[in-house]
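To: structure desk
From: M.T.
Subject: fold request, one chain
Message: Could you run this one when you get a chance? Sequence is below, nothing fancy, just the single chain.
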Amino acid sequence: MARAQLAILPTDSRRAPRRVVNLAARLREPGARLVDIELLNLSTTGFMAQCDASLEQGDPVWLKLPGCAPESAKVVWIEDGKAGFEFATPLHEATVEMLAAAGRKTPPRRHFGFLPRR
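Reply: Done. Structure tokens follow.
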């Protein structure tokens, strides 16, 4: 079974494959306050996040990912509390893999209502 393929979304017309993640991060417009966001997917060229920030298409932002230096990006689209961003400089693939692995969470015991076998 190829588990890695389960976490990769189809590339559609995108330049890089997206990885499904569930990461807490922080976003900041230059000179503005920090906003907590949740990264939903990530690629070397950009990311999608759920956030309550008042952003507009084309706005420059800084993304602070866990364990990484802040990354410059710009808002590409906004819809229903979600936004898509493009990095000014693409991330290294190893960085994306590290963050995707950190974002994987094992389901809690009894996740589907079953008791563990003894």
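Reply (cont.): The first helix runs from residue 3 to 6. Let me know if you need anything else for the meeting.
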